[in-house]
Amino acid sequence: MSTPDDHTSFTQSKAAARPVTVDQYEVEGAWVVVAAGELDMDTVPTLQEALEGGAASHPSVILDAGAVTFADSTALTALLRMHQTTVFRIAAPSPTLLHLIQVTGADRILTVRPTVDEARTA
Where do runs of H (alpha helix) occur along 24-94? Predict the structure, then answer.
């Protein structure tokens, strides 16, 4: 049986059918957070921790969101908060996330680019 201490801080598996994984790396001074899976009220804290950690140590943060399969208002709120906190860009958002950003009008606030490299140089 698994205990809370048995998992890494990069995988949220509270809802086993809906985990999110987060990988992180640096590219030319920017912190890149790669999210995969569903972003909802159970999983967003894992993403938020990675984004905030990157913002604390790097001048800009990029979310590579190509593998996000679902995102709700909790995820959108987290993205908007990051925009207020640091230089924040979203790269390669999945169709699901891009739709959420566009339908809510957040595309007028958030910087969205098709690739990590374009997000880094934007």
Answer: 44-57, 73-85
Domain count within the chain: 1
One-letter amino acid for residue 77 of the chain = T
* Residues 97, 60: Cα–Cα separation, whole Å: 21
Tell me the C-alpha distance between 29 and 100, whole Å: 29
Rounded to two decimals, the pTM is: 0.85
Q: Tell me, what's the pLDDT at 2?
A: 35
Q: Which residues of the chain have pLDDT under 50?
A: 1-16
pLDDT value of position 18: 62
Instruction: At 71, list the tokens.
Output: 């995102």
Write down the residue that tokens 């913002």 correspond to. Answer: 55
Give the residue from 46, 2, 41 showing the smallest Cα distance to 20.
46
What CATH number should be reported for the domain holding residue 114? 3.30.750.24
